[in-house]
Amino acid sequence: MPVVQKIAFYRNVLEKLTNNPLFPSTDIPLPEAKAAIDSLEASFCESRDGGHTIIAKMHQQDSVTTKIFKICRQNS
User: Fold this and answer.
1) How far apart are the C-alpha atoms of 67 and 32, rounded to whole Å?
2) Rounded to an integer, what is the distance from CA 20 to the centroid of its chain?
3) What's this model's pTM, rounded to 2 decimal places?
4) CA distances (Å), origin 32, targets 39, 47, 48, 49
5) Which of 18, 29, 50, 54 is the most buried (most CB within 10 A)?
6) What is the pLDDT of residues 17-31, one digit of tens each?
7) Domain map of the chain by residue range?
8) What is the DSSP string of 35-76?
C-alpha cells in the first residue's frame, strides 16, 4: 500500500479507536500512535522533493508506524 494511503488508513483506525468503549485501552498509547502517524506524514511531505536521505527517512518512519499498528492488530 502506498504511504499516502497508509497515512489515511492509520488516521481512520486511530479515529475509530479514540473514545471507543469497546477499546478502553490499547497496547500502544493512542498519543504515541498519533505521533507516529504525524511523523510519517511529515516525512512523506518532505520526501516529495525527491531527496534520497529524506526518502530513506520516510521509509524508516513507515516501518516504525507499521509496527505500531501491527502490534495493535495482533493483540486486539
Assistant:
1) 12
2) 19
3) 0.81
4) 11, 22, 25, 27
5) 54
6) 999 999 888 888 999
7) 3-12+29-74
8) HHHHHHHHHHHHHTT--HHHHHHHHHHHHHHHHHHHHHHHT-
The residue whose grid cell reads 527517512 is 57
Alpha-carbon distance 72 to 26, whole Å? 7
Alpha-carbon Rg for the chain, nearest whole angstrom, is 13
pLDDT for the residue numbered 28: 87
Task: Give 44's contacts (C-beta < 8 A, 6+ positions apart).
Answer: 3, 4, 7, 58
| 6, 40 Cβ separation under 8 angstroms | yes
Contact in structure between 23 and 76 (CB atoms under 8 Å): yes
Give me the residue label for grid cell 516525512.
Answer: 43
Contact 37, 72 (CB under 8 A): no
